[in-house]
Structure formats: structure tokens, C-alpha cells
Amino acid sequence: MPTPPKHLLLLYYTSLLLTYLTFTNATDFPPCNAHDKAVLLRIRDHFGGPNGRLEDWSNNSDCCSAWNFIGCGSNPGDEYGRITTITFSRGWGLSGTIPSDFGDLPYLGFLSMAENVNVTGTIPESFSKLKKLYNLDLGSNSLSGPIPDKLFELKTLKIVDLSGNQLSGAIPPSVSSLSKLSQFNVSHNKLTGNIPRLPKSLKSLDVSNNQLCGPIPSGLNRFGAKMFEHNKCLCGSPLSPCK
Ligand SMILES: *[C@@H]1O[C@H](CO)[C@@H](O)[C@H](O)[C@H]1NC(C)=O
Ligand SMILES: *[C@@H]1O[C@H](CO)[C@@H](O)[C@H](O)[C@H]1NC(C)=O
Ligand SMILES: *[C@@H]1O[C@H](CO)[C@@H](O)[C@H](O)[C@H]1NC(C)=O
Fold this sequence. Notes:
Layout: H1 6-26, H2 34-46, H3 63-66, E1 70-72, E2 83-87, E3 95-97, E4 110-112, E5 118-121, E6 135-137, E7 142-145, E8 159-161, E9 166-169, E10 183-185, E11 190-191, E12 204-206, E13 213-215, E14 233-235
Parallel strand pairs: 2-4, 3-5, 4-6, 5-7, 6-8, 7-9, 8-10, 9-11, 10-12, 13-14
Antiparallel strand pairs: 1-2
The site of one 2-acetamido-2-deoxy-beta-D-glucopyranose has 4 residues, from loops.
């Protein structure tokens, strides 16, 4: 058999390389888990349906590779192809309540729906089913009602931002059991009652602009007065002494 011309060989090797690259690229995205996809489609339908704000969440495409805002577990193991992150763009204009369906994404670790000002209603209790949740950012929406006690059963929580809503009621004392909690921002709400004991793991705290009252627990003055200002009657270091 005659040796093929050099340029044909080059073409052959180039196409081999391209096939290889395409293939490895494709494997960057695990296939979307069917259960999680069905849950996301319910969430899409809640937020305006197939022609609404989440219109690229199509049943005909793979949610891990083709949908906005979604991240899937890509390491081999339990999380492979499961929804692990949802990061809605700020100002995306979602409107309506937060559907309880979010609680049916058991591998969800990171949820951000900050600055979608027309997101209303209460924080669903079903969030307490998210046993892997470490980041919850619901800041700058129009949420009201209490912070569910059950939310702080999630010992995985590290970052909690509920700031800039109209949340009312007390900060659940169970927050003190969140031993990994690093950032806690509930500023600019309508929270009442006192500040409960907070975990030592905390690196950033903001409870300003609420209606909180009573002595600030000791050890929190490291965050500075600004993080406690504009409340009803908080007292003690770093604010003025209690009478
Ligand atoms: C999505 O497609 C699957 C498979 O074709 C089908 O079983 C399912 O009912 C569809 N779901 C929705 C919400 O249309
Ligand atoms: C919020 O809802 C109001 C009333 O439906 C609408 O006029 C406004 O444009 C919405 N804002 C955003 C950012 O979607
Ligand atoms: C808390 O959230 C508000 C916005 O809602 C922001 O202005 C403030 O800087 C945040 N505080 C901290 C300590 O990050």
C-alpha cells in the first residue's frame, strides 16, 4: 500500500485530536438527573412557565449543560448529575413567591436569588430538607413573615444573607447551633426581639436596621457598632451601655 501524502496524514491526526477534544469537553457536563430536572421544570412553571423568565429551561435540553443558572455535580459519586448550585442573576426579574419545590433538590448546596425585588411571600419551610445547603442568599427581595425555625436545623449553613426584605419576628435562637456559620446578614428587615447567642465561627455579622432590642450578647463587639445601628433598643458594647 502506498504511503498517503503528508498533508492527508496531518488532516487525519488533526481530526483525531478534534474528536478527542470534543469528547472530553462533552464529559465536562454530567447528564442531568431526571428527578432534579422535573423539580426544576416545576420551578420554571411557577416563575412564569415555558415563556417566562426561565424560558431556556427547556424539557428538550440537558439541564446541566444547556440551562442558565444551574450547576451540577460532576465528580463521580452520589452528586454526579445532581443539581448542586442555583445562582439566579441579580435583577433577573423573577416575581412571585418562592415555591416549596426547591426543597426537593437534595444535593443543592448553593442557592442565590438575591436582588429579584418582586420575589414575595415567606421563606419556605421546605428549605429545611436541603441537607447540603451551605450558602443561602435571598437578599434584597420582598420576602415577609418569620425566618423559619427549621431553617437553622441545617448545620451545613456557612453563609446566610436574608438582608433587605421585610422579614418579621425573632431571629430563631437555633442559629446558635450552626457551628459552621461564617457570614450572617439579616440587616434591613423588621426583626424584633433580642439577638440570640451566635456561633463562634462567625466572621461577618450585620443585624442593623431592624427593630431589635435588649443587650447585645458578649463577644460580638468585634463586628463594630455599624452592624448593630438603627434598631429599636439594642444596648451594650459596641453600642452604649444598657441602663
Ligand atoms: C419532559 O419530557 C419527558 C420525556 O419526554 C416526559 O416524560 C415529561 O413528562 C416531560 N415533562 C414536562 C414537564 O413536560
Ligand atoms: C415588579 O412588579 C411590578 C408590578 O407587577 C412591575 O411593574 C415591575 O416592573 C416589577 N419589577 C421588576 C424588577 O420586575
Ligand atoms: C448586609 O447586606 C446589606 C444589603 O442588604 C449590605 O448593604 C451590607 O453591606 C451587608 N453587610 C455586610 C457586613 O456584608
